[in-house]
Specification:
Mean pLDDT: 85
Number of helices: 10
Largest sheet: 5 strands, mixed
Shape: elongated
Low-confidence stretches: 11-24
Strand content: 5-15%
Structural class: alpha/beta
Number of strands: 7
Order of helices and strands: HEHEHEHEEHHHHEEHH
């Protein structure tokens, strides 16, 4: 009995060492291959099965994708650069393998058997396999699937998702290399704008400081919004409508309804009244000839009177009980 116990105790470290070697046999070589490259591991059916097989004391994130043009997966091609950025960032920040995480890519062209086994009909699919032994081990070793329903995801979003499933501890941040083309483009554009404004500024400043220009812009903006332009965009109102008698109705009944053409007519009326008032107040007093000045007063006064008469008639169309009116409308 004592001999058997001694033999068992002597062989126990060998069994433990063999188990540890069997568990670590996948992580160490794949991690060495992972950090020696510049992107996630390229997998096929065999390496995928070997890398995700239990038991494992490491985590695996595998992107199942279809990058070839003949498969027509635009989402796969859009997300692949972000996946490569995440892989490079993890290689750069975790060369010692402290997080016990491996990133891999399985393309449909190299892993048709895996796609069929998992019964996948769409791509890309990102699967996270938590460890089955050791720190952070999950009792249920089923893979966790990342959701791509919102379209292409950024490397930062996937990094946050993976980090939530890893054991507590520091994680390598996402590192994006400097985009020299974009930097040169932005610098060239800024220098071009600075050069343009430095040359054109003497010609632009009089336009910017022109009081009449700003008065016109302000007046047009006021007329645009007081006539109901935003109401049309919010309510998606029709341009015109039938009157039930084979004709066209240009004005909608009720103050809470209106047509697109009605807005343009009202804006034109307000604009005419505004310009007539401005002409009476600013232009007519500057006329030197008294006779022409008198004629201008009568003309602009008639325009204002006629426009107000038409405006009041529109109010009566909108609301039959409106009590005010001016001839001739």
């Amino acid at each position: 009995m004592q001999v058997s116990l001694a033999i068992f105790l002597g062989l126990l470290p060998l069994f433990c060492l063999a188990e540890k070697s069997r568990t670590d046999s996948n992580f160490e070589p794949y991690h060495a291959k992972f950090i020696s490259g510049s992107s996630p591991l390229k997998l096929d059916d065999g390496s995928y099965e070997k890398l995700t097989a239990a038991p494992r004391d490491y985590s695996v994130a595998v992107l199942l994708t279809a990058l070839e043009t003949r498969f027509g997966c635009q989402l796969c091609r859009d997300f692949q650069p972000e996946w490569d950025v995440l892989g490079k960032s993890w290689i750069r920040g975790d060369k010692k393998g402290d997080t016990r995480l491996l990133l891999g890519t399985l393309d449909f062209a190299e892993g048709k058997g895996t796609f069929q086994k998992l019964m996948l009909q769409t791509a890309p699919v990102l699967l996270f396999f938590p460890p089955t032994t050791g720190p952070g081990a999950k009792p249920n070793a089923q893979a966790i699937r990342f959701d791509f329903t919102m379209g292409p995801q950024s490397a930062e979003q996937v990094h946050d998702w993976i980090s939530r499933h890893l054991p507590a501890g520091p994680k390598p941040p996402v590192y994006r290399p400097l985009n020299y083309v974009r930097l040169i483009t932005i610098t060239t554009a800024i220098l071009g704008l600075v050069s343009f404004f430095s040359i054109a500024w003497p010609y632009i400043i009089p336009i910017i400081q022109n009081r009449n220009l700003w008065a016109a812009i302000s007046l047009i903006t006021i007329l645009l919004f007081t006539s109901g332009h935003m109401f049309n965009h919010i309510r998606k109102v029709p341009y015109v409508s039938g009157d039930g008698k084979g004709g066209i109705s240009y004005f909608a009944g009720g103050f809470s309804n209106q047509f697109g053409l009605e807005t343009q007519i009202v804006a034109a009326m307000y604009g005419t009244l505004s310009f007539a008032t401005i002409a009476l107040a600013l232009k007519v007093p500057r006329m030197v000839d008294p006779q022409k000045q008198q004629i201008a007063v009568f003309i602009w006064g008639a325009v204002i009177f006629g426009m107000y008469s038409f405006l009041l008639s529109v109010f009566r169309i909108k609301n039959g009980g409106y009590p005010f009116h001016l001839p001739p409308f």
